[in-house]
Amino acid sequence: MKLFKKIKNHKMKKKIVTMAAAFTLITTVIFANTPGNPIPATVESAFSQNFHHIRQVSWEAFGNYYKATFTQKDKTLYVFYSENAELMGMARNVLSDRLPNSLQSELKSRFQAYWITDLAQYKVADKDGFLVTIENADRKIVLKSEDNQHWQIYSKENKG
């Protein structure tokens, strides 16, 4: 208020108030419209170099790694990057008829009271494999197969 008392010119006071209000408004708009993007620029840059033809991608952060989800040739793909922007692996959804016969048979015999809710084929380093999520009314289980011969329990979760 002392500032305004010292400024005797009414037009000058009006200019200062207008400039201060404009500055506040501009900074509020700039920072309000900035999306909170937790994905490091180095990770996004690595993705753009590896998949330069992909235009629409959604990102998710999971602790120390990041997942990019995008569609290519009508297939949804997932690419995983470390916090150091290193490509960790890729995965894609598949139908259960794409499973090797041995894995299909094991699911039918060991987990007959469950249904498949998610099935993905992945490649990490030089290892190929499958991840399947199966569920029943009480339980959710994620199984993993690296050898295309047997399922290993990756995680279990009780529902409700």
Domain module tally: 2
Return the CATH topology of the largest domain. Answer: Nuclear Transport Factor 2, Chain: A
Q: Would you count the extended β strands for me?
A: 8
* Secondary-structure-derived class: alpha+beta
Number of H- or I-type helical stretches: 4
CATH class of the largest domain: Alpha Beta
Query: What's the rounded overall pLDDT mean?
Result: 81
Strand order of the largest sheet: 1-2-3-4-5-6-7-8
Give unreliable regions as ranges: 16-34
Report the portion of residues in β strands.
35-45%
Distance between the termini: 61 Å
The radius of gyration is 27 Å
Q: Any idea what the CATH architecture of the largest domain is?
A: Roll
Major beta-sheet overview:
8 strands, antiparallel
- The general outline is elongated
Give the proportion of residues in helices.
25-40%
Order of helices and strands: HHHEEEEHEEEE
